[in-house]
Amino acid sequence: MPAEWERHAATWIAWPHHQDDWPGKFEPIPWVYAEIVRHLACHEKVEIIVNHKAAEQIAQKVLRQAKALSNSVRFHRWPTDRVWTRDYGPIFVKRRSSDRQSSGRLSTEDQSAGRALMATNWRFNAWAKYRNWKKDNAIADQVARTLRVPQMMPEYEVSGRKKAIVLEGGSIDVNGRGTLLTTEECLLSKVQQRNRGLTREMLEKTFERYLGIKKVIWLGRGIVGDDTHGHVDDIARFVAPDTVAVAVERDSRDPNYEPLQQNLRRLRSATDQNGKRLRIVELPMPAAISFQGRRLPASYANFYIANGLLLVPTFNDKNDRVALDILAEVFPDREVVGIYCGDLIWGFGAIHCMTQQQPVS
User: Is residue 243 in some structural domain?
Assistant: First the structure.
């Protein structure tokens, strides 16, 4: 699995339509999307999934008014349940020419394909929490077929039966060299349990088999308010093969303080695929954001790395500038742009959650 900073052919997103994800705050959400598309389209192609023709017309109108509609934007009319393509879209990998055989389920057409780019199609079940997920679960297959790339559907065996493995893109992060970050809270907890009977050791073998991972770094818990129960893209992200940006809460009274300190300690003692210690870059957390009595999962770690561009969520917080400056030092070759996500985060996701990169072939 390539690192996110490696060259993209495109970014995939889904146009917002499920108003219940932002009850009472849906109106500004399409405009947040338009601002994100406006910046992305200056650097790479943007593939936008819409429910139907009428939805495409609405999206085009919004993008046109925001001066974000260009030849770099293309639409696909596929129904979705929600917009979080990071979690239900295909996770792309590049395979070596020798990687012709796999224990994953491949179609006959895919088995004969020789393309370097490949899509891993993991099962999606709405974070083991919501009932409406079947439309989203079909998207990875539709993307792979549209791109005409081989796809692999990871499976595991439990009680003598083979089952598709559930994995969301936001639950993992990689350095492109064979090391993966994830959390025990998301992948090993019995709360919102994705894969009953799939152990830590089985998961590590799964990551090795399907994503080329040699080393898994297990962090503990995610942040308060995270609807996914511990996605790593809110707390720690690779920003270089040997460097991790990690969210740190400075206020010892905040409920995020101790879990994030524990993650920081684990990272400081962790090593990469070659046994080398990692360089750690600490990112501050914004002040707590709540709406309708609920703490929201606001974090600067939910940034997205595009071609020549870094999109960073901001929250009208004093630490916005601090986080942007830190990330600008980490990515001196990219334009660093803050996107206000104070409204978007009411849907329990931000910029990384809504995007999925397609590497170049």
Answer: yes
